[in-house]
């Protein structure tokens, strides 16, 4: 199962935002076409870890996460998870219409999957920024994010500026 082109472009833009903070120069050029197949062309002077990561991102299979559902253990595609939340010491993953218990800490999820868009949004929650449909500023520096399933979550002020930067600079896409 391959990633769709919109998700790949968003993830590449997110990686470029991270690289800008690391002072690595990379250009992103998007070109909307009326006909033909979607394609990704990567131009580089020398292969480096950043280019390798982008190549891997465009060609790899989706990653899965072990979870406990109503009928027992199952695997969740990381791209299907909207956000993860810690409640009473347990961590739950929320998809469009189901909730699963997962066997990772929020710290572990953030460390492993940050480059896939899993970003801390409060002390007890990590959001998949690629699943945010739109967001609005709230009083006291918070953000109200509406997910793809129309569920709303609040991003605390401690993490709001970081998320704003990622969403405004790294998550822009062309409709």
UniProtKB/TrEMBL annotation:
InterPro entries: LytR-like, LytTR_DNA-bd_dom. Keywords: DNA-binding. GO terms for molecular function: DNA binding; phosphorelay response regulator activity. Residues 78-169 form the HTH LytTR-type domain. It holds the Pfam family LytTR. SMART domains: LytTR. PROSITE patterns: HTH_LYTTR. This is LytTR family transcriptional regulator DNA-binding domain-containing protein.
């Amino acid at each position: 199962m391959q990633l769709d082109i919109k998700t790949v472009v968003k993830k590449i833009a997110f990686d470029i935002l991270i690289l800008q903070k690391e002072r690595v120069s990379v250009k992103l050029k998007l070109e909307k076409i009326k006909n033909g197949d979607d394609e990704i062309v990567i131009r580089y002077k020398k292969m480096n870890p950043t280019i390798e990561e982008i190549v891997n991102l465009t060609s790899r299979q989706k990653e899965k996460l072990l979870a406990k559902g109503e009928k027992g253990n199952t695997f969740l595609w990381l791209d299907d998870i909207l956000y993860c939340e810690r409640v009473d010491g347990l961590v739950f993953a929320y998809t469009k219409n189901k909730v699963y218990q997962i066997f990772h800490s929020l710290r572990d999820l953030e460390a492993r999957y940050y480059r896939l868009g899993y970003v801390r949004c409060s002390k007890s929650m990590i959001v998949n920024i690629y699943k945010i449909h739109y967001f609005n500023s709230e009083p006291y520096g918070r953000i109200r994010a509406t997910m793809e399933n129309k569920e709303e979550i609040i991003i605390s002020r401690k993490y709001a500026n970081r998320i704003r930067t990622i969403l405004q600079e790294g998550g822009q896409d062309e409709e």
